[in-house]
Amino acid sequence: LRKSYPQCKVFMVGHSDGSTFLGATPELFLSKRGKELKTVALAGTIRRGIDKAEDDLLATTLLGNKKERHEHQVVADSIEEALAPLSRMFSMAPGPSILPLKNVQHLETKIQATLQRGRSLMELLARLHPTPAVGGAPKQDALSFIESNESADRGWYAGLVGWIDGAGDGVFGVGIRSALIRGNRAWAFAGAGIVAESDPELEWNETAMKL
User: Fold this and answer.
1) Angle at CA 154, nearest 5°, toward 149 and 159?
2) Residue 82, CA atoms < 13 Å, CB-side half-sphere
3) Please, what is the angle between helix 121-128 and helix 66-83, to 10°?
4) Cβ atoms of residues 191 and 134 within 8 Å
5) What is the distance in angstroms between the CA of the first residue and the CA of the last residue of the chain?
6) How far apart are CA 145 and CA 36, in angstroms?
7) Which residues have C-beta within 8 Å of that of residue 129, sequence separation ≥ 6?
8) pTM for this one?
């Protein structure tokens, strides 16, 4: 995974029942060093091209796609809404750039903040999670809908994976592009953001690319 996805955060977490949760997540959820915070809005996806020319064309198509930009903006707005009130300085890139991975390309907007005094990493995690990318928006309405209508058990999928040190600093990623391994069986997880303009077949194909 490290070799195939150098831009991702690779993780592996063992459980007392002998199962292992692992993956290569492209989504930095939160990085905190003292009062300095970094995160990203990551939403909007298209495939990779067979050569640089097609790759660049697909990237341009993604940047200009209204549906994908809307999906991305919902995530970016929710992060700003959650973090800006806790920050002395909040800075978001003026627009998304392309994050190319081995199998897909994403829209990514980088975000930085200088926190107010006394803001803890655990407070930030609780305030941000889940973002619309995995939990929907508006948050409470979306989570209630998911609980009532989603038949699959997510388990640790889309949860947070990371570390925290004695100073209260740490790095967390979102447990997507992941799998649970138990004995000789594995359950692989991937998803897609659904908005009003989503085409079911295209969203299905997107999850297949991610898997």
Assistant:
1) 120
2) 26
3) 140
4) yes
5) 13
6) 35
7) 29, 135, 160
8) 0.90
